[in-house]
Write a structure and sequence with these properties.
Helix content: under 10%
Number of helices: 0
Distance between the termini: 55 Å
Number of strands: 13
Length: about 160
């Protein structure tokens, strides 16, 4: 059916069938907690969220990049881009202030591919990015979004093999 399921309670606990492990707990005016195997992994607090364990950000692994490429920051946090031709990173519309991650640029078996940046991507001194030209080499570029239309790129770590 379509409809509404309402549970009215000041405290809510969802447990396993044996009632000996928590799955979710919620307190009116307080925390909501999510559990994995009865171990609390996520808790809301008055200032945000506390995570116990590791947060794994989603990564776009794209093995064929040439021409204009628009990164989808709403769908992915990190980007591993194999360059199969000269590539321009077009200004995105999906970046979120405070988002950070990395962009890995992998030269294909030919190498010599270049990257051009849209105006939303900023580098220290406005010098752009020069990639390692050798075939099959990888360069790693950290980023942080400081405002809509402002993606700051860190200094590339170059020439991983």
């Amino acid at each position: 059916n379509t409809g509404y399921l309402g549970i009215l309670s000041d405290d809510l606990r969802i447990m396993n069938a044996a009632a000996d492990e928590s799955i979710l707990t919620a307190t009116n005016g307080g925390a909501v907690n999510l559990y994995y195997n009865d171990s609390k992994k996520l808790e809301t607090t008055n200032i945000g969220v506390t995570v116990s364990g590791t947060i794994i950000a989603t990564t776009d692994t794209d093995t064929s990049n040439t021409g204009n490429v628009t990164l989808d920051f709403a769908a992915k946090q990190n980007f591993v881009l194999t360059l199969t031709g000269n590539t321009t990173l077009v200004n995105p519309t999906t970046e979120q202030v405070g988002q950070s991650g990395f962009i890995a640029f992998i030269q294909d078996g030919t190498g010599g591919r270049t990257i051009t940046l849209g105006t939303d991507y900023e580098t220290a001194g406005g010098i752009g990015i020069t990639l390692t030209a050798a075939a099959s080499k990888t360069d790693l570029v950290p980023y942080v979004v400081v405002a809509a239309g402002r993606i700051l790129l860190g200094t590339p770590q170059r020439n991983f093999s």
